[in-house]
Specification:
The chain is of the alpha+beta class. It folds into 2 domains: 277 residues, FAD/NAD(P)-binding domain, CATH 3.50.50; 130 residues, no CATH class. Helix content is 28%, strand content 16%. The radius of gyration is 23 Å and the shape is globular. It starts with a helix and ends in a 16-residue tail after the last helix. 52% of the residues are buried.
């Protein structure tokens, strides 16, 4: 490796620098405690520290960056001109590591996980942020409040973290929930916000079985990975969430790839439907299936690729994420472990099972996990892709109209542009004897502005908490705004907001929005559709 990583202290040394340390319960409160070392959490902490706050970042695990450094290297960019501020600078530095000095095309936004994590580590160190790993919020009674003010949070090791302001930047939103902030889980029905993309989606063509296929085995029994149903009425709401998966970083470089191995707990019968589907493929498609038919690879530097879900039966573990948002820690860990076993088993099935067409099997075996990524988890990603969990019901709830027709906001703090993108939610046996995936949403949008109120809890609930990840949006709106560059830009806005609230000794809901916007523009943020600067001119 050359470039950035040679100029930054090694990962092991970085982890030692950020090792947990005791904090006195009688110490004066910090200015800001950020919970969750996601990319949004890093940006929140970094932005606030750059504004002069003393910031502590608590991460329950051992890595920084969430999905940005956890496998999602094929950045969801869409209109790259609207990505500004610190988020853009992050991607600029990542590109520069490879000798690329523009962000004019999608390939310029792609980097290896280890490169992104090194940048995040460097930024936080330079800004003076105290990073504490292995600090998970106490599962019950972890938040102390006086009226509407959060006073402190307690982590599982008994440490108490006092602060003037807090930011919940986790994918789970546990701090938000324990602070008494209202939220929702699942899909609203069409009638709630008058969204025609809301609720159950009975007829969707993408990531779908391409011909009618029976979900029954030779004994007439429903195959694994198929729900008996019913699917639900079109447009009806439910409490189900879109599928999670692990974004795999694979390589075709012989010297860097790890071989596929049979995972402990592997059960080939779980892939009976996939075997049947692949067995009928040539008859219906008039060609052999390829790796691209069952996963979506996007090449990133150094002969590596980000492999995502693709097609009817892929790396998305459909229907197994529903309880995750409100689950306790033990159940969440089981869901996480089950997703990892599914991923390992799915790839082992493709690589080894005699029912897989030989051409596809050979192609799968030409790839393997990259040895130089995810060193402490044997090449398996360290972050489950929690595409959607809890969603706050805050000062402003973002809706489908905000993506399509009401695209400008006077209090805009960032912009979005990625298409409405919800992955499938359930795989259901249909009354006609077939099987269908349900829940997919893929609808293009034009650039839109994101209201400040989406990261603010209601004032009557708490006055010193910001929520830039489990933000306030309907399921439909969240399907677009949930992209990592948006989380990062909202994190920047949250960090500057925290600084303004601390300096002004005011509620986060009462800071001067015009002053916030002015400061964000000074930091090269893109806030409005008619803003003159193109993204690449920043």
């Amino acid at each position: 490796m050359t470039g950035l990583l040679h100029r930054i202290f090694p990962l092991t040394a970085a982890l030692l620098l950020f090792a947990p340390s005791a904090i006195s319960q009688s110490a004066p409160p910090d200015d800001l405690v950020v919970y969750g070392g996601t990319a949004s959490g890093v940006m929140t902490a970094y932005a606030a520290a750059k504004e002069g706050l003393h910031v502590v970042l608590l991460e329950p695990g051992t890595h920084l960056g969430g999905m940005v450094t956890g496998g999602l290297s094929a950045t969801d960019v869409a209109h790259y001109q609207i990505i500004g501020g610190y988020a853009r600078e992050f991607y600029r530095q990542a590109a520069a590591h490879y000798g690329v000095h523009t962000l004019n095309k999608h390939d310029d936004w792609l980097s290896e996980p280890k490169v992104g994590e090194a940048i995040f580590q460097q930024w936080l160190k330079q800004a003076g942020v105290e990073v504490k790993f292995h600090e998970r919020l106490k599962e019950h009674g972890g938040v102390s409040k006086s009226g509407t003010t959060v006073l402190s949070i307690t982590t599982e090791d008994g440490k108490v973290w006092k602060a003037k302001t807090f930011a919940d930047c986790s994918y789970e939103g546990d701090l938000m929930a324990q602070a008494g902030v209202h939220y929702t889980v699942g899909r609203e029905g069409m009638e709630v916000y008058h969204e025609d993309l809301a609720g159950v989606r009975v007829d969707t063509p993408k990531h779908q079985f391409l011909w009618k296929i029976s979900p029954l085995d030779e004994k007439g029994k429903l195959m694994p990975e198929v729900d008996p149903g019913p699917m639900g009425a079109n447009g009806a709401g439910d409490k189900k969430v879109q599928a999670y998966n692990f974004r795999m970083i694979l390589t075709d470089s012989p010297g860097n790839k790890l071989p596929w191995t049979k995972p402990e707990g592997y059960d080939a019968s779980n892939f009976a439907l996939l075997a049947k589907y692949l067995g009928e493929w040539k008859e219906h498609m008039h060609r052999e299936p390829t790796f691209r038919d069952v996963m979506n690879p996007v090449m990133i530097p150094n002969h590596e690729a980000d492999f995502n879900n693709n097609g009817a039966f892929s790396s998305d573990y459909i229907g197994k994420s529903w309880t995750y948002p409100d689950a306790g820690y033990a159940e969440r860990q089981k869901i996480w472990d089950d997703h990892l076993l599914y991923t390992k088993s799915f790839l082992w099935f493709l690589a080894s099972d005699s029912r897989v067409p030989k051409q596809l099997q050979a192609e799968v075996n030409s790839w393997g996990r990259a040895k130089d990524e995810f060193l402490d988890t044997e090449g398996w990603p360290n972050q489950l892709y929690i595409r959607e969990g809890r969603r706050m019901i805050g000062v402003y709830v973002m809706k489908q109209a905000d993506l399509q027709t009401d695209r400008t906001k006077p209090d805009s703090i960032a912009m979005g542009s990625y298409n409405s993108d919800s992955h499938n939610i359930q795989r259901v046996a249909t009354p006609d004897g077939g099987v269908r995936n349900e829940g997919d949403v893929q609808v293009s949008v034009k650039p839109y502005e994101i209201a400040f109120g989406t990261i603010l809890p209601k004032k009557e609930e708490t006055v010193n908490l910001l929520v830039p990840v489990c933000l306030s949006a309907s399921h439909v709106a969240y399907s677009s705004v949930r992209m990592e560059p948006q989380y990062m830009m909202l994190g920047q806005a949250a960090g500057v907001t925290a600084a303004m609230a601390v300096r002004g000794k005011t509620a986060v809901q009462e800071i001067d929005v015009k002053s916030l916007q002015k400061r964000l523009r000074e930091q090269k943020a893109i806030l409005h559709i008619d803003q003159e600067e193109s993204g690449d001119s920043l």
